[in-house]
Structures are given as C-alpha cells and as structure tokens.
Amino acid sequence: MKALITGANGQLGWSLQQSAPQGAELICTDVAELDICDASAVDAFVAQHKPHLILNAAAHTAVDKAESEEELALGINAQAVGNLADAARAHTARLVHVSTDFVFDGVSGVPYKPSDTPAPVSAYGRTKLAGEQAAGEGALIVRTAWVYAPKGNNFVRTMLRLMAERDEVRVVADQIGTPTYAPDLAAALWALSAKGITGIHHYTDSGAASWYDFAVAIQEEGLAAGLLSRAVPIIPINTSDYLTPATRPHYSVLDKSSTFAALGGPAPHWRVNLRKMLQEIKTHG
C-alpha cells in the first residue's frame, strides 16, 4: 500500500509516519515538495506517484491569524482539499482529511455528534467546514481537537516552558473540550482507512477538560516526571479576561461513540496520554 502524506512536517504528519502500517510505502510532502494549493501540481504529483491513500495533515491552524487572513486560510483549508479530492477521484486514490471541533459554535451542553449541524463562529472554523465540503462524500473526514505531540509547538510544551520561566501562569477555565494525543489520532486514521470507512467521524482522547484543567495536569505530571523543578500558581481566568481576535467555542467535546465502536474500543483518557507524552519528552527530549 502506497500512501501520500501532506503536511508531513507537522505534529500529525510526523505521527502518521511513526505509526504507518508495516510495509506501507510513504510519500511524505510538505509545502516545499508539493504546494497543495496548486491544482495542476497536485494532479501531476498524484498521477506520477499513484498513491492508494492520500492523508491530508496539512492545514492553516493559526486560529487568530485566520481572522485577518481568511482568504489564505480558505486556500489551504478548503481549496487545497478540493484539489486533493479531485486528484484522488481522477487517479483512484482514497482521501483522508482531518477537520476540527471548531466547526461547531460551542453552545451545546452535550458532546457533538458527527450528524449535528455545524455552525462555526470563527474564520478558522468556517474554512475547515468548507474543507469538509470540498473533500466530498467519498472521503474519510475525521474531526478532532486540541492536538499535541512530543514533536512540534503545542499547548503542553508551551505550558512546560511558561511554568519553568514564570512565577505564575493564567489559563482560561471556561472553554471545555478534549486533548488529543497525535500518535493515537494517527493510529486511528490508519485503522479507519484500513476498514474502508468514509463520511464524517469524530476522534479525540476520552474524557473532557478545560484548558485550566489541562494546565493543572501538565504541572502535576511534569513534576512527577522530573520535567519541572517547582510548582507555580495556576490562575483560572475567563475567556473575557483573555481577548483574542477569534471567537472560540465554549464547549466543543465531540461524541466519539461510533468511531470507538468501529475501532473496537475507546481511546485512552487524555490524562493517560499526557503522561505518555511527557515520558517521551523525558526520554527523547
């Protein structure tokens, strides 16, 4: 099986490479190797390499910047997805596309199902929803949230740095979602692909947390792992105390029940995966 991975230098792209099935032939690209916003380049690349599977881990993920550069975000998050979908159809490949909890408005008090009506409240959310539509019915679309990995820039590494540098940290406590360990998400994408599953599905770790809860756990587990030498006060604040250009959903927990059923069981709890990630950092840096 030959698989094309776009966005290969990112957290998820790296994780897809690490968890690829044995014997898979990987074609790993980022913008330097393939500009997925260039439709003709995408078609020519897919025609040349003839992958069986296209895993799109490329995205414009700068949520606040997307408010001022929505056209750029739309190009990467939607138009490029359409290019990949067109090439997949033309050359008999299957497309796997990763989307986000930000397609929802966050006003629900219960986990969002894949069938719930999207209502994005940010430019990032709008462009990612457009990407889902561009991927088309034959694609596997997996919505996820709060992704982090041992490699790359993410909330966990930022918190570890701030807790080492500052006498206190302030973290939003009224946005609720679920952290997602990128290596497990990558393994789920490979497994769902192998089953030939299509349509929209949800995947995150199990459980739910606020960003404040996540930060508290990072400090506790970081101290236990020896990655932090001291505890600092973590101050819970409201979203209104930390204004950003983009509106965030206050509640974006995703219902993963159908995905977990397809995979044969639930994902680990987010705190279990946080502990695993910190051990990876301790061992490999």
From TrEMBL:
This enzyme catalyses:
dTDP-beta-L-rhamnose + NADP(+) = dTDP-4-dehydro-beta-L-rhamnose + NADPH + H(+)
Query: What are the annotated GO cellular component locations?
Result: cytosol
InterPro entries in the record, alphabetically? dTDP_dehydrorham_reduct, NAD(P)-bd_dom_sf, RmlD-like-bd
Provide the alphabetized UniProt keywords: NADP, Oxidoreductase
The answer on whether this UniProt entry bears the keyword Zinc reads no
Q: In which pathway does it act?
A: Carbohydrate biosynthesis; dTDP-L-rhamnose biosynthesis
According to its UniProt record, the EC number is 1.1.1.133
SUPFAM superfamilies, from UniProt?
A: NAD(P)-binding Rossmann-fold domains (SSF51735)
- Please give the family membership noted in the entry: Belongs to the dTDP-4-dehydrorhamnose reductase family.
- Cross-referenced NCBIfam families: rmlD
What is the official name of this protein in its record? Answer: dTDP-4-dehydrorhamnose reductase
State the organism named in the record: Sphingobium fluviale
Q: What is the lineage of its organism?
A: Bacteria, Pseudomonadati, Pseudomonadota, Alphaproteobacteria, Sphingomonadales
